[in-house]
Amino acid sequence: KPAVTPEAKAWPLVGFGVLLLAIAMRLGGSATSFLPLEGLSFVLCLAALTMLSGGRAGLARFWPPVVFLVFMIPLPYEASRLLGAELQKVATAASTFLLQCFGQPAIAEGNRILIRDVTLNVVEACSGLRMLVTFAAFSVAAVFLMDRHWLVKALVLGSTVPIALLTNVLRITATGLAHVWL
Fold it and tell me: Minimal CA–CA distance to 95: which of 10, 178, 159?
């Protein structure tokens, strides 16, 4: 029989503590109808079960998929609303500029772009927040899967936000040009 070290015994105790914390978070999130807290409790519960069943080796092996599950948690409403509103402003201003570069007489009024007789509304769904979260999830998954230098991984993660913003601006600009030309 292999000897059980004190460190190996500590992992199930830590796992049990994390499991109790996850249950408390679940109850608190359920009582307050705060969905992000409930989602985080699920991720913590999986981490605790990993610690309980596999100890340090199990957590070392399965931490990337457990961490990746954070992307399933919805953003808090206020954070989503405020971040979405800021992204709408950025998308409106950048798309207006790009439309002007294409020779269109585009004017931004709030979250609307006026192009000749066309009004293009940059609504909440056009803020790009969902696209940003999706790109972030793909970038994190790519970093977990790639066997590259840490600088390459940092570059992949760092390029997430600019690529998401640029893609959203190009999509809105293409929509505006399609309305005018077609």
Answer: 178
